[in-house]
Amino acid sequence: MAKSIKKLLITRFSALGDVAMTVPVVWSFAKAYPEVEIVVMSRHFMQPFFSTLPKNVSFCGVDLKKQYHGLIGLMKLARDIKAMGFDAFADFHDVLRTKVLRARLMFAISNRAKINKGRLEKRSLCKRGAASYHQLKTSVERYADVLRKLGFRFEVNFQSIYADSQPQLSENVTSLLVGTDGCKKVGVAPFAAMKGKIYPIEKMKQVVNLLSSSGVKVFLFGAGDNEKSVLEDWEHQFNNVVSTAGRLGGIAGELQLISKLDAMISMDSSNMHFASLVGTRVISVWGATHPAAGFLGYNQSETDAVQLNLLCRPCSVYGKTPCKFGDYRCLDINPEAIVEKINK
Fold first, then answer.
1. Which among 70, 82, 266, 320 could disulfide-bond with 108, CB atoms 3.0 to 4.6 Å apart, if both were Cys?
2. Are residues 90 and 186 in the same domain?
3. Same domain, yes or no: 267 and 326
4. 168 — phi, psi (to 5°)?
5. Residue by residue, what is the 3-state secondary structure of the chain?
6. For residue 112, what are the domain limits?
7. What's the number of CA atoms in the CB half-sphere (13 Å) around residue 195?
8. Co-location of 145 and 254 in the same domain
9. 271: exposed, middle or buried (C-beta count within 10 Å: 0-12, 13-18, 19+)?
């Protein structure tokens, strides 16, 4: 089957971290099969993830809120995809939206494959708890398996989106790095989409204080007005601390800055995956979720994960499940434990 495929469509529309995790696979596949034209389709703002990939990779941004909204919009998107003349369709998402696209393109694209998300395995992991867990297949390998179902054989051997050339730093990033030569630089991304993933803000504030007091230059990452307000408050309270919220010009600037850091402290969130794309080591903090579910950043080590070995962990695959005790005791981690990981 693989020999007949010259133009391949890959779809993954959300979320930020999940789309970021497709990059090691797309990069490795593109290197292994330079004769295959690869089009990655996602939301427009995901484009920076793919801007430095091999030349046989292109990005197609789509507007799912307006241009392709609802069932009628999906019918239009299916027609537009059909007109692009693909030989194969790799669905890295397998949600209702992409199920509809696969059905509509059944006759137009005969070579199709979809991701196996391992939903039953992940639910079982949450029922058993960490005391008896075994490592499930990672999301990156699950993406690679989709392409293997199409007949391609390759290994994921990605290092960084900047492996072929150093990033051209934007003026915003350059200005934030002024005066940081010779000092250790650590990023801190204290937020996540779900409460079960967020280390208590007051404890993370202590982490920032301990790092800044030791002479480490700390860069704070966040988005939105509420997060920006918290980070700017920390910037004003502590020396050697800079909030990057609203100052990097989007994902491209974040990736550039993170590539210049010595380490990153992140929740089980998108910033862990951003750092993984640029080869920066991550000290990850885990609460309701667990690395065994397969969402640890690519090429990151579980030995760099800070977590408590509780029988109730993990209680959630994505962090959505409310704590049955109400206190999120899984996140009652000593700030010194995180700083110690950085110091080592």
1. 82
2. no
3. yes
4. -85, 105
5. CHHHCCEEEEECCCCHHHHHCCHHHHHHHHHHCCCCEEEEEEEHHHHHHHCCCCCCEEEEEECCCCCCCHHHHHHHHHHHHHHCCCCEEEECCCCHHHHHHHHHCCCCCCEEEECCCCHHHHHHHHHHCHHHCCCCCCHHHHHHHHHHHCCCCCCCCCCCCCCCCCCCCCHHHHHHHCCCCCCCEEEEECCCCCHHHCCCHHHHHHHHHHHHHCCCEEEECCCCHHHHHHHHHHHHHCCCEEECCCCCCCHHHHHHHHHCCCEEEEECCHHHHHHHHCCCCEEEECCCCCHHHCCCCCCCCHHHEECCCCCCCCCCCCCCCCCCCCCCHHHCCCHHHHHHHHHC
6. 2-149
7. 7
8. no
9. buried
Q: What is the distance of C-alpha 266 from the center of its chain?
A: 11
φ, ψ of residue 64 in degrees (nearest 5): -85, -5
Look at residue 164 in the predicted model and tell me its pLDDT.
79
Token pair of 145 as six digits: 């398996």
User: How far apart are the C-alpha atoms of 168 and 48, rounded to whole Å?
Assistant: 13
User: Are residue 67 and residue 202 in the same domain, yes or no?
Assistant: no
> What backbone phi and psi angles, to 5 degrees, belong to 68?
-120, 40
State the pLDDT at residue 2. Answer: 82
pLDDT digits (tens, 9 = 90+) for 166-205: 889 999 999 999 999 999 999 999 999 999 999 999 999 9
269: CB partners within 8 A, 6+ apart? 17, 189, 191, 192, 193, 197
Strand-strand pairing, 185-189 and 241-243: unpaired
Domain boundary among 87, 118, 149: 149
Q: Which residues pair with 57 in a beta bridge?
A: 38
For the chain, what percent of residues have pLDDT higher than 90? 94
Kindly state whether residue 158 falls inside one of the protein's structural domains: no
Is residue 320 assigned to a domain? yes
CATH number of the domain enclosing 49: 3.40.50.2000
Q: Are residues 188 and 142 in the same domain?
A: no
pTM of whole model > 0.90? yes
**234 touches 255 (CB < 8 A):** no
d(CA 42, CA 143): 15
- Does any domain span residue 154? no
Statement to judge: residues 179 and 328 lie in one domain = yes
